[in-house]
Amino acid sequence: MAETNITQEHQQVFSALTSGEYSNFALFSCFVNGEPASAIVAINKPGADEYQITPLFVSVTPGMQLIDHEGAKPLNE
Fold first, then answer.
1. What's the pLDDT at 68?
2. Within-domain flag for 65
3. Which residues span the domain enclosing 33?
4. What pLDDT sits at residue 76?
């Protein structure tokens, strides 16, 4: 079996995002380790005057280094 960092929760969130069944997802401007980024978030309202914002996936920032399980980097075009 191939090695993966994809969890069951990641799979469930991705399915929810792509299904079109939910409308509580948003693109959120943020910072990751001080670098400008954006995130896909779920927004829920647990109380009358509060919102719960849960980050699901974040954009790649210049300081991130993306590699696969063998250490290979993606090609930059």
1. 86
2. no
3. 22-58
4. 64
Q: What is the value of pTM for the model shown?
A: 0.76
Q: Strand 35-47's sheet: what is its strand order?
A: 25-32, 35-47, 50-58
**Is the residue at 7 inside a domain?**
no
Helix, strand, coil shares of the chain, percent, nearest 5, are 15, 40, 45
Per-residue confidence (pLDDT) for residue 77, from 0 to 100 = 47
Whole-Å CA distances, 61 to 32, 64, 71: 8, 5, 19
Question: Rounded distance, CA 19 to CA 30, Å?
Answer: 25
Residues of the chain falling short of pLDDT 50 = 1, 77
Length of the chain equals: 77
CA dihedral sign, ordered 32, 29, 9, 62: negative
State which amino acid sits at residue 41: V
